[in-house]
């Protein structure tokens, strides 16, 4: 695969967020402020890619209507890990998350972001086997969590 550069007519930025329980746990403070964030974005005519954790879809079905409405208004809704309390999704977690996402949102997820930006050959293979179109599990960093280095691939 060869990546081609693109040019944009105006200055642009990319915004993504992970819709999950408070980092790695069970807390709900961030989820309770999701509607507030959506309102803030919409007031500024901004869109984002939202990666939704499987547990959120399972335990908070009310948020699904918001995600569907956002998808109809230019937001990209994609799959985050199935369970952020685990180190990484295995193939079965990916399948379970994909099925839950498809059932909730009425379409399969095209994109995926792993927990803690855990990127590996196995993950890429599993995502390809399940029909995902793209992955956002690499954090552009030289060091630390998510850093892409020679060991990752």
Task: Draw up the topology in text.
Elements (H helix, E strand, L loop, with lengths): L15 E4 L9 H4 L1 H10 L5 E4 L1 H6 L2 H11 L3 E4 L11 H15 L5 E2 L8 H9 L4 E2 L18
Parallel strand pairs: 1-2, 2-3, 4-5
In words, what does this structure look like?
There is one protein chain. This protein is of the alpha/beta class. The chain is built from six helices and five strands; from the N terminus they run E-H-H-E-H-H-E-H-E-H-E. The chain has helices at 29-32, 34-43, 54-59, 62-72, 91-105, 121-129; strands spanning 16-19, 49-52, 76-79, 111-112, 134-135. A three-stranded parallel β-sheet has the order 1-2-3. Strands 4-5 form a two-stranded parallel sheet. It is globular, with a radius of gyration of 16 Å. 23% of the residues are buried.
Label the structural class. alpha/beta
- The largest beta-sheet arranges its strands as 1-2-3
* Largest sheet descriptor: 3 strands, parallel
Order of helices and strands: EHHEHHEHEHE
Question: If you compute it from the alpha carbons, what radius of gyration comes out, rounded to the nearest whole angstrom?
Answer: 16 Å
Q: How would the global form be characterised?
A: globular
Strand content: 5-15%
Number of strands: 5
Chain-averaged pLDDT:
84
Distance between the termini: 15 Å
Question: Approximately how much helix is present in the residues?
Answer: 25-40%
Counting DSSP H or I runs of 4 or more residues, the number of helices is 6
Q: Low-confidence parts lasting 5 or more residues at pLDDT below 50?
A: 149-153
